[in-house]
Amino acid sequence: MKDEKNNKNKKGKKDSKKSKKIFNYFDSLVTFAGYSCQASELLHSILTNYNPEQVEEQMKEMHEIEHAADIAKHDMMKYLVKEFITPIDREDISNLAQEIDNVTDTIEDVLMLMYMYGIQTVRPEALEFTETIVSCCHALKKAMSDFHNYKKSAAVIENIINVNNMEEDGDRIYTRTVRNLYLTSTDPVEIMSWTKLFDCLEKCCDSCENVADAMESIIMKNS
Predict the structure, then answer these.
(1) Nearest residue to 209 via CA among 170, 155, 153, 152
(2) CA-CA distances (angstroms) from residue 100 to 36, 174, 180, 206?
(3) With CB atoms 3.0 to 4.6 Å apart as the test, which of 37, 42, 58, 149 could cross-link to 137 if both were Cys?
(4) What is the predicted pLDDT for the residue at 8?
(5) What is the CATH number of domain 24-221?
């Protein structure tokens, strides 16, 4: 009887270990980057086919992406605060998740500004920005997809470098477009609103670089 009871206890412990869900933080980070890609693609599509009458409704679509990203991040944090052992430092996981979330938030901010300022037409330079932001987000997702294997994968560093290069492209676009705005526009409201919008678009590129820099820092720390 005693042996039978011990066997049942051992079996129960094994079953409880099997039933315990193992949370994959790297997969979650890829998911977060995917939301940034969705947001950037939506913004580019809206600006390419811009209709000021549709912006309010499109903001709801954008917010759904941002809200889904927030929920996914909160779900991950529930596991992170209880986890005893994590694949990399819990502070690094938390920081990286927040940096990716900042990308999605900043992309949403662009659309919110367009709505608040009542933008009626899109300046063509803005599309250069959104194309760059889309490319940055996809490079981040590619880097994040291989991040679980960061000690061996050359693709992680390659895509981090790609993001850094594209952020520099964003800086050049920003300098040129702001100069062109002040040279070609005489409308003070247009100058004010598009200065703010170009600032926000440039901040999207900076946010992508912040994610890349955080990844690079983690790699250096753990190598």
Answers:
(1) 170
(2) 7, 22, 31, 11
(3) 37
(4) 52
(5) 1.20.58.220
